[in-house]
Amino acid sequence: MDGYTDNDISHVVEADKAHVWHHLVQHKPFETGEPRIIVEGKGMRVWDQNGREFIDAVSGAVWTVNVGYGRESIADAVREQLVKMNYFAGAAGTIPGAVFAEKLIEKMPGMSRVYYCNSGSEANEKAFKMVRQIAHKRYGGKKTKILYRDRDYHGGTIGTMSAGGQDERVMQYGPLAPDFVRVPHCMEYRAQWDASGAEYGRKAADAIEEVILAEGPETVGALCLEPITAGGGVITPPPGYWERVQEICRKYDILLHIDEVVCGMGRTGKWFGYQHYGIEPDFVTLAKGVASGYAAIACCVTTEKVFELFKSDPGDPLDHFRDISTFGGCTAGPAAALENMRIIEDEGLVENAAKMGERLMANLEALEEKHEVIGDVRGLGLFQGLELVKDRATKEPVAESDIAAVVAGCAERGVIIGASNRSVPGLNNVLCFSPALIATEADIDAITDAVDGALGAVFG
Ligand code: PMP
């Protein structure tokens, strides 16, 4: 590579500053400071351009690297596959594509078909498109509406932003697509109904039914929800919520689409988040942990019942799912995913996520006892959040600058943590933790020790 050697990292920093448009962050600060460049990773740890070591408590910042960094066996599997057969459009099959689909479906009783693509947004778009086509094929063009929930996130495309429950991430990108309708969130900590526990869960689900009735059930095709809301503030559903949601979908013939882009692949201590709640979805979308970021791969998984609706008559060339994702035919994705899945199974990482999740929760609850600023601790498995408030009674969120200071304070202590999207005042003020599923007790303790120190430094 021109102008680059391992010893010339300052050139890399300059090239980055001059030409890379980073995701999510503002660039003004780079005029005086440097962007963080991650140069190496191993296990739970990464190193930046200055040789500083961090424990990554958020798996690549956005809950992705489930099996940890530096997995040579995944690199080997991808290399072997690429030199044999790197790509062929998805109208044909490939060996790793077929084998991974079979293995994935073994983990998802009730599901049947895997549609390959490249990102979480894209997988969700595929499901939306299928829902729309079903509306046209089966319901005379009715049932095109897709319900989504306040605070849930499904991606950055115009379609998925139309199903975006975090206003701050969509408000500057309209006009959005029609026939996406919002339902209320289910967060008991910031309750919208005077109830608690299972009663709260039922009320939050009943609120979805009210929206369906107001819209007209004959116009609603699908309901798309995260099993546990991720970037919107790590929102775990109250008991009874999901049972009632499922019941409502069945009652009104509404397809249930579960967005497992974050929760999937062991993150919550089961293979998939929805499996905690006895849900039988019609669509499950997956991305991040499918290959832990070793290759770009996403899946829109459906039941055979959904697939059957598209099994079309060869006499009518228009009658099938008229869609392609060019890079859905890359074999690097399923080759990496297969080895990723083998690692998760052989190393017992789903079980480890459940076990280490209990320790993480216990440590965070101990911090809650100690730091008045912690209003709520939420999550499941290695997917947890701390909501910070100025006052436990009023639940007024802490200032955004304080959240940033805690995140920076953790980095100073050698731990990278995350924070939910928080630019709407009063909404998101949650620190996020999603370490790799290989985390040990010592890793978990090091993470929460850093949080303890940073909270003490910022809030006293
Ligand atoms: N769904 C959820 C729940 C997500 O958290 C994300 C990404 N943060 C997406 C979908 C979109 O995935 P991608 O960025 O791969 O398009």
TrEMBL record:
Q: What Gene Ontology terms describe what this protein does at the molecular function level?
A: pyridoxal phosphate binding; transaminase activity
Q: Which SUPFAM superfamilies match?
A: PLP-dependent transferases
InterPro entries tied to this protein: Aminotrans_3, Aminotrans_3_PPA_site, PyrdxlP-dep_Trfase, PyrdxlP-dep_Trfase_major, PyrdxlP-dep_Trfase_small
The domain of life is Bacteria
What are the record keywords, sorted? Aminotransferase, Pyridoxal phosphate, Transferase
The cofactors it requires, by name, are: pyridoxal 5'-phosphate
Question: What CDD domains does UniProt report for this protein, alphabetically?
Answer: OAT_like (cd00610)
The family this protein is said to belong to: Belongs to the class-III pyridoxal-phosphate-dependent aminotransferase family.
List the protein's name.
Answer: Aminotransferase class III-fold pyridoxal phosphate-dependent enzyme
Source species, please?
A: Maritimibacter harenae
